[in-house]
Design a protein that fits this description.
alpha/beta, TIM Barrel, two-stranded antiparallel sheet, 10 helices, globular, binds zinc ion
Length: about 250
């Protein structure tokens, strides 16, 4: 072994394994967090808010339609003259087409939230993602004659496969800025408090029309937001982008 090779070997002996392992671990953690956090825009560009110069905000309801709660949510929105956006699961659209028609008739916007909302959806291939999007678009288009352009990733998960799929399908990914975690067991008052604490002009708020707490939440939240001079509009109006494709 010559002199320079000896020095090189000694040098590597001196590098603690942590110098290699720690940055590697940090990289992996950042990638994982990025994939699970749509707000980071890690793999795809999602829209999280609209114009912040006026007091428009958008309420969004995920995972429906639900045979009990969607109707109750609809009644409350109607009572307060509020328009909202519903990110629906294709499988449920097929089960409850009447609810989708009602949402559309009352001028709410319907977006695509995948067909299965499967727990393993982030492991989907591009072909599987395309199928999720296509089947949900078809279910909605067959019901209301309009093909949605807005898509919200289930669980807020974004992966490179999904990013490529959306680029191909032409959907616009819609995220959120305010998330009160309303599906977890908690008091309506604490859900409302979280929203009111965070809410700013232009915000998109993530809620779900799939649990009983949403009713008392909206009963108090809608008048309170109005009192604070917020105007609740659809995502289409908030971000000034078409919610449906020309068929
Ligand atoms: Zn969801």
């Amino acid at each position: 072994m010559n002199f320079s090779a000896t020095i090189l070997l000694n040098y590597f002996d001196l590098i603690p394994w942590q110098l290699i392992a720690v940055p590697l671990m940090i990289g992996l953690v950042i990638t994982a967090l990025g994939a699970f956090n749509v707000q980071w825009n890690f793999f795809l560009n999602a829209i999280h808010q609209g114009d912040t110069s006026n007091r428009q905000i958008a309420l969004t309801f995920d995972d429906g339609p639900h045979p009990i709660y969607t109707k109750q949510v609809l009644a409350l929105l109607k009572k307060h003259g509020v328009q909202a956006t519903f990110f629906c699961i294709g499988r449920r659209v097929l089960h409850y087409p009447e609810l989708i028609k009602e949402l559309d008739e009352q001028a709410h916007i319907i977006g695509n939230h995948s067909f299965t909302h499967a727990a393993t959806i982030d492991f989907h291939s591009k072909a599987q993602w395309l199928e999720e999007l296509r089947k949900t678009d078809a279910a909605i288009a067959d019901t209301i004659g309009k093909k949605p352009l807005f898509f919200r990733p289930p669980y807020g998960v974004t992966t490179p496969h999904l990013a490529k799929t959306i680029k191909k399908s032409g959907h616009l990914a819609i995220g959120w800025r305010v998330r009160p975690y309303d599906t977890r067991r908690q008091q309506p008052a604490s859900i409302i408090r979280k929203i009111l604490h965070q809410i700013k002009a232009g915000d998109i708020i993530l809620l779900h029309d799939t649990h009983e707490r949403i009713v008392p939440v909206l009963e108090q939240l809608l008048p309170e937001l109005k009192k604070r001079n917020f105007t609740m509009v659809t995502v289409e109006k908030l971000i000034r982008r078409n919610a449906y494709a020309q068929l």
